[in-house]
Queue: 2 jobs
Job 1
Amino acid sequence: HALFKNLLFLGAGILHHQTHELNIDMMGGLIKKMPQTSLLFLIGCMSISSLPLFNGFVSEWLAFQAALQVDVLDNGVLRSLIPVAAAALALTAALAAACFVKVFGLIFLGQSRSHHSEKAHEVTDKSMLMGPALLAALCFLFGIFPGLVIHLINSVSAQLLGQTMPNDSALGWLWLAPVSAEQASYSPPLVLVGALLAGCATFWYLRRNQETKTMRRAATWDCGFGGVTSRMQYSSGAFTMPLRRIFAHIWLIDERIDKTMQGAMDQDVAVVHYHLHIKDHTWPRLYQPIERGVNALAKRVGRIQTGNIRTYLGYSFVTLLLMLWVVSQ
């Protein structure tokens, strides 16, 4: 998890550095302007979405395999809670996949939504890409050869727990069998070979049809509105609208639409402004009281900062006396 999360954080930093934007609704179309960054960010998205051939899938798969062994536990409470935790993990994985599909689409696909995004380009200092590239390579390497990595960290689990993960396969680098090969096994190299063969077959089929059939290119259908613009694209607000409707009672949602009318009888809409502010119920009830308490305490403590050197010397003298008294006891 540390690999792909740091990869995504570094990717977000590069995007902010190149676009000067923190709002993904103001991005878009960056896959053509920043192809290398988009590839690295895509690897991070696929890893955190637990797709096969990446390290995120291995960790999720091992967690589910551990949940399937719940019957060996003696504690009935744990036997009841672990399936619930596994279901929550599955839901989290599905939500993560849906989230990052939309994140990648909003940032890198479609058209640019702002001037900064339109003028963005790939980083000129390639050293900025070295860190994300290393993390992306490790995400792929750990996803293809998880057995070798687990073999290296088995010594840690042996020292802490006195046990290691068994592996019944003689080819530990090829097969991953957390319990036994008869119960469950996973071979990322074979999955990679199968994916490459399927990709080559698909490419050959499409290329063959392209040579035998005439392709016709046309402009994207604009639904009769006279040209496709960036304002017609989905935004993060549009994607999260169903969730806002479902969890409306959990969040403090301030959503309104302001219209500026024009015309003789104000019957034509001139400008539309959409406002959305979302807050959590716990923020005003839990975090804001803590914030006010910390600020009040900081103001009182700040009174000792007089800026007078004689006062600071007095503090040092009193502290020295207290230390001498403590040592003498």
Job 2
Amino acid sequence: MKKFTQLALVSSIAISANAMAMQAMDDAALSASTGQDGINIGIGISKVTIDKLFVHDNDGLNGTQANAGAIVIKGASDANKSAITLTNGQAYSNADFGVYVGANYSNAGAYLLASRNLADLQIDSDAGTSAKGGAFLNIAAQVSGLEIHLGEIGVTASGTAGSGTNAGTIRRGGDDTNYNAILSGLSIKTGTMSANVQLGAAPQGAMIKLNTTMIGGLEIANLGILDNSTKLGTGDGSSAANRAAGVIHLDSIKVANTGKTDLDIKASVNVIGATGTTAADKGYIRIINEDTGGIDNYVKGIHLGSKTAGSIGDVEIQGLRTYYSPAAGQYTAGSVLTISGR
């Protein structure tokens, strides 16, 4: 009886293992035919806020650490404070946050993903081919239409990490007594977008490929460019002695395909490695934007001097196209942008 029990146990294990093996084979066959393997990630974030964002230049213009400065995005100062009505109907002040990013609920949710996530990712690992560099990780991303609001952009002297008000933190921050605003803020609205990222090898020809249509186009609103050289006294605009900084204020800038309301985006992003020992040869990021047939621009409400000054009118540009030269005498529709450190 004991031997029979042992035999039955071994048999059941063998049968179970065989069944599991058959199931694994079935799953593998299913994946091969339907592509069901891989990882799906849904990013269910409704909004992101940042109090302050600093980009530090550690040696300033003259190359000394004592002149370190920073670009800072923070909540708007009293002179540039204004109310913002979000696309979901809620309101807040641009003094509350440096950066606000949320879903674009305009047009009854037409610019949201079907999942209602802020972003959806599909991740696959692929063996690739030796001819194109071998294995790679493929990340396909779909991003909801967004509304982005920046409180105020300025320049400041960089602070010192771990000392003064930064003691006991990892913060460095800036010097509030040495600060000048350069942009009074801006708002951006986008439609849905998609991108494909490949890490490891990149058989698509670039680390990041954008080939998408931004439904509803791109809109930048409430852009103010400040001239602090004309500011006097407190700069609150209450009198001639306290003249406010001058402003070029644009109510909105809309960008779309020529003769359309949507905006096609077709671009490649490559990270170019070092080719030598000099600073100029240490590598850079290259963004190639392919022309999709030209774009239309409409700039509404141009105010000179202050946001409340009378508008000089609107400016409209139809069929704007740019070209770059991959070789002497050749012109390719599009543009090339390179970004590197110094």
